[in-house]
Amino acid sequence: MPRATTTIPFHALRFEDDLPTLHEVERRLKTFLRGLRKQRQAAQTGDDDDASEKMDQFFDYLNEAERRKIRRRAHRYVQRLDALSGLSHLSEENRAKLTPMRGGLPVTRVTSEHEADEIAAALHAEMPWMAPATEAVWHGLRASAREGLPGVRFTPLVLIGPPGIGKSFWARRLAHHLEVPAAKIDATGEPASFALTGSQRGWGSAQSP
Question: What contacts 86, CB < 8 A, 6 or more positions away?
Fold first, then answer.
């Protein structure tokens, strides 16, 4: 049975298809102008239906100067919306890469302390010699379920020991039982925090999305 998940929005980005098109904004402005004209005329003519019908064709007509003015305003409006989207500084390629994150991303949940017990028991059965690490995670999972957190939370761990005892394998098995992806970051060539925070050489001029 798939583990429960919660979708968490973590950005305020507005993607391109969330924004109105230039044509749509122009159409709205034209409709508003025509409606405004009719409103003003109605205030002048009162309930004179004959006069109102005669003016309808006039209201629908927009001259070239009015069309240009509407086009300029629509263009400025769309430009400003794009600037406020949080994506205007990115290339089309990078915008496309962010698309899967629209609406938020799912995080795994542990819905009960019993579920936390099952995860810890399965992990301990596979690697009993990693009991201290498993116990630390177990307490974190139980607390996450008890507090009703939207995801799981436990204290970050540093696994210390000689090569071959299964530190990396234990981490992969924990990810497997939580049904989340595992990532491995090589920290042998530079301080680990550089790779995690994006502060290694080459990121000095980068911008956050």
Answer: 11, 12, 13, 14, 209
